[in-house]
Amino acid sequence: MFRRPITVPALIAGISAMVMAAVMTMVVSPAASGAPVEGPAASVQGNDAVQRVLDRAVSGRGAPGILAEVSAGNVPWFGTAGFADTATERKRQPFDRYRIGSATKTFTATVLLQLAGEGKLRLDDTVEKWLPGVVKGNGHDGSKITVRQLLNHTSGVFSYTNDPDMMARLVGQGFLDHRYDSMRPGELVALAMKHAPDFAPGTSWAYSNTNYILAGMIVERVSGRSLATEVNRRITSPLGLVNTYVPGESATINGPHARHYSKLLLTDPAAPVHDVTDMNTTSAGAAGNMISTSGDLNRFYSALLGGRLLPAAQQKEMFTTVPTKNWIPDTGYGLGVISQKLSCGVQVWGHVGTIHGSQSWTMGLRDGAKTVSTNVNGDWVDQVGISVDVMQAAFCPTARQAAATRSTIRPLQLL
């Protein structure tokens, strides 16, 4: 999902994990029942700079709709511009659910690190130990790749979302033809194994959705349960994230949600817009298939950053970063989390996510005292530019600093 300008391969890869992976058996959480769950009341004070960014995203950058929620203290601030549904002109609401793309990776990594904290695996374990014979062929060797290298993208494993056959399923008419297909994790890994590795394990960095498909498979092998079950019992249920769930084979978004609009990853600015709200996301799996809300994401990242989900040793591992290459400017990558330095010098942590029809970005201060989530329900706009502007406005003290970033951000790079 990223690293390059808006070329089709980058876009697909950037699809934040978008191109997903097979979902295992899912135990439905309270959120999956479809009953509307209202979010917290939104504060009407402050964050004028954030609201201006939202307004510009619609009026100047063509976003169909955008929202942002700032959580700091007891009362969150919620802002929106544009529409949740362009046909009815319904406004976006705090309780609207959306597909979060690669932010799923943080959930997957958190579960794996919890298992490590319980002594059920080690981050230095090889992939071969837990998935014998799975990472093999064309130079790939699971006995030389560690779990840690999967989580921080230093494994060198080829990203299945860059495979030409997979790309054909993601772009243009191919997506419309295959949007309801199911894919299993093993199939996705097999696509990656058709290609040579990007580099020898531990020698460089490259974002690969295959890494997190493998991580999800390891969670299931170690725990004896589906990843969906582990996410629910370890994270969403304890934190009360009633709007957050793994959709499994379901193509719909349960409960209230915005429509998701896409130009099907085509680079032609004149490409028609399609409603892609319903889609089977098993091709994203542990790399990018989850559904949530801005409030739930803020609560999750606040708990994670604040040290409430991991033991100290695993917390330190998660937030130990490696440099990223040709990716989002001023970022590092930990174990399922991104660090980003804003122009005012503030360091924030979280993840981004892109999937057909949805672009998300959640960041927070290192102690979790303040978190910000934003989402655009269209996939053709400048995600990095808009999202960084939101974070600048929320975390930096002056509008001038926020404006300074816009001139340095590259064209659309997906994650």
Describe what this molecule looks like in 3D.
The protein is an alpha+beta fold and 415 residues long. The protein has one domain: DD-peptidase/beta-lactamase superfamily (Beta-lactamase, 3-Layer(aba) Sandwich), CATH 3.40.710. 33% of the residues lie in helices and 13% in strands. It contains 15 helices and 14 strands. The chain has helices spanning 8-14, 48-59, 104-117, 127-130, 147-151, 164-170, 173-178, 185-193, 209-223, 227-239, 285-288, 294-305, 312-318, 383-395, 399-406, and strands spanning 65-71, 77-82, 98-99, 136-137, 140-141, 261-262, 274-275, 291-292, 322-323, 331-333, 338-341, 347-355, 358-364, 371-376. The strands form four sheets. The protein has an eight-stranded antiparallel β-sheet, with helices on both faces. Strand 13 (358-364) and strand 14 form a beta hairpin. Helix 3 packs parallel to helix 9 and helix 3 packs antiparallel against helix 13. The longest helix has 15 residues, at 209-223. Residues 1-45 and 399-415 have low confidence and may be disordered.
List the defining traits of the structure above.
single chain, 415 residues, alpha+beta, Beta-lactamase, eight-stranded antiparallel sheet, two-stranded antiparallel sheet, globular, disordered N terminus, disordered C terminus
